[in-house]
Write a structure and sequence with these properties.
The complex is a heterodimer. By secondary structure, chain A is mainly α. Chain A has 5 helices and no strands. In chain A, α1 runs antiparallel to α2, α3 runs antiparallel to α4 and α4 packs antiparallel against α5. Chain A is flat, with a radius of gyration of 24 Å. The two termini of chain B are 32 Å apart. Chain B contains 20 helices and 2 strands. Chain B is globular and about 65 Å long. The longest helix of chain B is centred in the N-terminal third of the chain and has 34 residues. In chain B, α4 packs antiparallel against α12, α6 packs antiparallel against α15 and α7 runs parallel beside α19. Chain B is an all-alpha fold. A two-stranded antiparallel sheet of chain B has the order 1-2. Classes of the chains: A mainly alpha, B mainly alpha. At the A-B interface, α1, α2, α3, α4 and α5 of A face α8, α9, α16, α17 and α18 of B.
């Protein structure tokens, strides 16, 4: 994937989402009792977004004719994907089983350990430091939210 | 008048120090910014009274504005976009071996800018609110549009992409039950979405997640290490006298620009830098460590904080992301900002005024005592910072409403937001448009109901005409800017150096 393709892919993605949004606007129930229905404003927004996305795609294609484009790169792709997956997993487990004070520290500890990795090696020598950071963090969260503020997580 | 005893409690004093401390800390870390400071502290305010929550968040906001200058001076890397102008003379002075003096100039100017801004807040908010009582639905709709256009055309470099961001924010605000007909719109059949999307989830999705993903992909092991010593220094009376003019210039510019929606602290800082340079007796020394070049932008960005609070309190219209998040905090505590606040909760308003002075004083005290500590904390790498911040933002989204669906919404918006950010779509308009969405839609529909569907109602009254003219000027601002650039082709304009202000 090149930068230019990504320049087209982002508005194209938005256009797809907008297509669904507009579909809902035009197929939802009509409200005859009010002069301006609940979908009047969303229709304007949906059409405006579609026009803007098409304009951006056309502009990108027009401006970049014949130019070579750099590849689109995400630095540290493993860490990037791992952070998203770990966060999704954390939310899922928390939602399913509750127990924030079990899954939360595992999530934080896992990310700290993963991000401390350098030259494809885990920095095990930092393990104690990482465990202490996690324990301190969750101790603070427990005292602040549960004890002081009475918010159960 | 508020009883002072309800503001000056031990709890509020502690919150003020905690808010300022976190604000300074987050502001000093390059890339995090003022909005992040407020987002991070938001969950701590959930169980507080409205005034205590405001003390915490306003202190964080003021602190973050000054905190941004610490890394500007010690590293040459602005902590916040509004501290970017401080780099020119602040870093130059630090390189000349006087970082402590540069920080002292910055701290004093920030405090003075904050105090003058607080005075403006006290004296300008009520008249503006009284005046706005004459506005009706079309005027409020146009005012909100003015704010949105302002953010897009003045702050963003790519207008089309800015408009896309506005549309996204407004579209997100249409999710949920329609207040007029009761229709469930775009809820995907999920009961959690019938009340709409939680604003904190949008703010976290738009700000925290893309920022953290950006650090993971680009700067995970980056350490900002400053080897500068002598970060403490006192100024002499003649130094203070030298700063009077640039502080006055910066404060007035900051307040003026802050009141106008969408422009923000970065433009205020650069504008005041240019004005101070023009007004200086020795403009040639600017850029080489000139105290006036530090004082003017620092006074401006702190004065801008109160300037931008004026339209929020008086009209209910947030002009920046930080203000949009503060508006959310008001909502969470059941406070409806706008002209009616003066009648419904004058005690809270008075409390906010006093808290603002309070915030500046505490920022000054903490800055004076702890700047070397904040400079040293810059060495914390992203690898330690990201997991801690991610944990806090998850708590922040959940603790407010205890609905897991909002965590998913925040994560999805965050991932999409990262790609939008990479492709230079400004993210600030999404949050501001989301917060303003209800105002725009309700007043738009009400206006059309009144006019029987005629759009002419938006230019019918005298106020509407003036606001409409402003909207047109703001909408054509990029063209005006281009024309200005053509006319001043061979002259260096600092305006081209202004970074996009997402705060």
């Amino acid at each position: 994937m090149t930068e230019k393709k990504m320049d087209v892919a982002v508005p194209a993605f938005l256009l797809c989402v907008d297509g669904y949004y507009l579909y809902k606007c035009f197929t939802s129930r009509k409200y005859a009792s009010v002069a301006v229905g609940p979908y009047a404003f969303p229709k304007i927004l949906g059409i405006a977004l579609a026009v803007l996305c098409v304009a951006i795609i056309a502009k990108t294609l027009w401006q970049g004719r014949g130019e070579k484009s750099e590849p689109f790169r995400i630095g540290n792709p493993l860490g990037f994907v791992a952070a998203i997956v770990a966060t999704a997993l954390m939310i899922l487990l928390w939602q399913k089983f509750g127990k924030f004070y079990l899954f939360g520290p595992i999530y934080t500890l896992g990310l700290l350990l993963l991000f401390s990795k350098r030259e494809n090696r885990f920095q095990w020598k930092n393990l104690l430091k990482i465990v202490l950071i996690t324990a301190g963090l969750f101790g603070f969260i427990y005292l602040t939210f549960q004890v002081a503020m009475g918010i159960w997580l | 008048m508020i009883e002072l005893s309800s503001l000056f409690t031990w709890q509020n004093l502690f919150l003020a120090f905690a808010g300022s401390f976190i604000g300074l800390l987050v502001g000093a870390m390059p890339g995090l910014g003022t909005a992040m400071a407020i987002v991070l502290l938001m969950p701590f305010s959930y169980s507080m009274k409205a005034l205590s929550a405001m003390v915490l968040l306003l202190c964080a906001y003021q602190g973050a504005e000054y905190g941004g200058s610490i890394s500007s001076i010690t590293l040459g890397v602005p902590g916040t976009p509004s501290a970017s102008a401080t780099v020119l003379d602040g870093y130059a002075m630090a390189k000349n071996g006087r970082p402590g003096r540069a920080i002292a100039y910055s701290l004093f100017a920030s405090a003075m800018g904050g105090l003058i801004g607080a005075l403006a807040l006290v004296f300008l908010t009520q008249p503006l609110a009284k005046f706005s009582l004459r506005f009706n639905s079309p005027d409020f709709c146009m005012l909100a549009l003015l704010a949105l256009f302002g953010i897009v055309t003045i702050s963003s470099k790519e207008v089309l992409k800015g408009l896309v961001s506005v549309c996204i924010g407004l579209m997100l605000s249409t999710v949920g039950t329609d207040t007029v007909t009761g229709a469930a719109r775009f809820t995907l059949g999920l009961p959690g979405l019938t009340d709409g999307i939680y604003t904190v989830a949008v703010a976290v999705g738009v700000f925290a997640f893309p920022e953290m993903l950006g650090i993971i992909s680009d700067a995970l092991h980056k350490r900002y290490v400053t080897d500068m010593k002598d970060l403490k220094s006192d100024l002499k009376p003649k130094d203070y006298a030298k700063m009077a003019k640039p502080i006055a210039i910066g404060s007035v510019t900051g307040i003026g620009i802050g009141v106008f929606p969408g422009i923000g602290g970065a433009v205020a800082a650069w504008m005041s830098y240019m004005l101070a340079r023009k007004a200086s007796r020795h403009p040639d020394t600017f850029g080489t460590g000139e105290p006036e070049g530090i004082s003017a932008p620092e006074a401006a960005n702190n004065a801008c904080v109160s300037g931008s609070l004026i339209p929020l309190l008086a009209l209910g219209i947030p002009g920046s992301t930080s203000m949009a998040i503060l508006a959310t905090a008001f909502m969470i505590h059941g406070v409806k900002v706008g002209p009616n606040l003066f009648m419904t909760d004058p005690a809270l308003l008075n409390g906010i005024y006093i808290a603002f002075f309070f915030a500046v004083i505490i920022m000054f005290v903490l800055g004076k005592l702890m700047t070397p500590f904040f400079a040293s904390i810059l060495a914390v790498p992203g690898s330690a910072l990201v997991p801690v911040i991610l944990t806090f933002v998850l708590i922040g989204v959940y603790a407010g409403k205890k609905v897991f669906l909002y965590l998913w919404v925040a994560l999805i918006i965050g991932v999409v937001g990262y790609f939008l950010k990479r492709k230079k779509y400004p993210l600030a308009p999404i949050v501001v448009a989301f917060v303003l969405g209800q105002t725009v839609e309700v007043n738009f529909r009400r206006s059309l109901e009144l006019s029987g569907g005629s759009l002419s109602i938006f230019v019918k009254s005298g106020y509407s005409k003036v606001i409409f003219a402003l909207v047109v000027i703001v909408a054509f601002f990029p063209l005006i800017k281009k024309l200005f650039k053509l006319l001043t082709k061979n002259r260096r304009t600092y305006l081209s150096d202004i970074p996009e202000d997402d705060n």
